[in-house]
Amino acid sequence: MSSAPKRIRQLAINGTALGRDTICRTCLIRISRQSRQFAAAAAVAPAAEEPAGQNGQSAQNKGLQKAYRLLIAPVVSRPPMLTRESTSFEKAYYLYQKRLNERLALPLTRYFYYKKGTPADVEWKRKIKSRQTAARDIGVYNAYGEFGWNDEVLLGDKTAEPDATRDALIRDAEGRDIVNAKPVDDKDVAGAVIAGDAAQGEATQKELQLQLERPASRVAKADNDNDTKSLSRKMDRILYLLVKNAEGRWRFPEDRMLGAESLYQAAERIIVQSAGINMNTWVVGNHPIGHFQYNYPSPKTTKFQRQRTPESPAEEVEQEEQGEKVFFMKARILAGQADLAKNIYGDSEYQWLAKEEIESQVTPQYWSYIRNMLTER
């Protein structure tokens, strides 16, 4: 702080008259201007009417504190369980990279892995004749032949599709080509051979009973049934828990902060009191990820218990609330499921919804506050 303001305050305390001989002209003009503003404000203040509260009485006369209702809303989400679907470009690119690697890699040295004339060697010759390459997931492609340069597929080809790759791997593991072969001794019939001695019955064809378990589909039964209460739907997306309150509005679980608890503690308590104890959840951080403010059409007078510190006793406080301020806390569900049987807030239903599904369930004002804090994945 400069010495000029200190000098002015000392002169004012001592009662010294302020003039050109005591302070500079600039400070004198500023002080006189502020004095006129303060005098005008003091003259208008007595004439101002006090705001009327409920029953025609002002909040000041009633001794009520004007404030907003402070609410905490845990945003419980289920993270993605699967990777997202690849785009058409990504599928074609990955297939191109696999075939390019097949061209650049050295050819497989067959006799290093398989002894000549053994069943494993015969099986290898059968497979290489059908698919022309050692790789099992790049389709029929000869990287060292005359058309090895043609490593791209045409538009509409299904070779790059994940379903086609999965089926090719399963067929190769099950050995379906061997089932349809007709081996006689050690002779090669239609490119398929089973080694053995016919006199001992080793060359007799037998039905191959090997059947591998198929991978589960990415589309679950809950997706087909549109079961919004199931956590097994939209497994490549983030799902958020929404509840329907007593007024019929969909929103995140929320409640007032009690006592001297922190935002983190309030979020943990609200999750248990609203969705039950059958969920294993984790509140991610101590800071909110979003904020929502709603002003009431008219102020409401409420009473609640407040505890300034954990050691101090709780006291009943009455205040005039102008609206609500909701702070959203990020949380994850690790296991379990929501159960509203013992919900103490009057919530009747719940749903697990993706981001774009939430917009149609909540009010436009609520959506405008929460849409930027929600993610699709």
TrEMBL record:
It is found in: Mitochondrion. The keyword Mitochondrion applies. Keywords: Mitochondrion, Ribonucleoprotein, Ribosomal protein, Transit peptide. Residues 70-223 form the Large ribosomal subunit protein mL46 N-terminal domain. Its main location: mitochondrion. SUPFAM superfamilies: Nudix. One of its GO terms (cellular component) is mitochondrial large ribosomal subunit. InterPro entries: NUDIX_hydrolase-like_dom_sf, Ribosomal_mL46, Ribosomal_mL46_N, Ribosomal_mL46_NUDIX. GO terms for molecular function: structural constituent of ribosome. PANTHER family: 39S RIBOSOMAL PROTEIN L46, MITOCHONDRIAL PRECURSOR-RELATED, LARGE RIBOSOMAL SUBUNIT PROTEIN ML46. Belongs to the mitochondrion-specific ribosomal protein mL46 family. This is Large ribosomal subunit protein mL46. It comes from Peltaster fructicola.
